[in-house]
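Structure in, sequence out. Go:
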């Protein structure tokens, strides 16, 4: 790998990590908002079905958060390997 490729790899990995972090933050905020709505709807007898549907959406969001966290950990490990490789040479 030449210096230009290393710099490009570094930039791509850092951008991916930052994008994942931003997306995770957004999803957590959405998740918190949905939790509040669910709590409000569960108090109303006629809206319990809607609350149940929203709980499924919330589970999907939480699953996405978990996947993004795993992907970000992988990217961070790749980044550390790239840095290690760079400074070995």
């Amino acid at each position: 790998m030449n210096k230009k490729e290393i710099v490009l790899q570094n930039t791509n990995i850092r951008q991916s990590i930052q994008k994942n972090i931003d997306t995770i933050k957004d999803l957590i905020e959405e998740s918190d908002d949905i939790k509040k709505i669910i709590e409000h709807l569960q108090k109303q007898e006629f809206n319990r079905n809607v609350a149940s549907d929203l709980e499924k959406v919330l589970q999907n969001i939480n699953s996405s958060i978990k996947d993004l966290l795993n992907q970000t950990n992988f990217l961070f490990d790749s980044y550390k390997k790239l840095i290690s490789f760079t400074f070995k040479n």
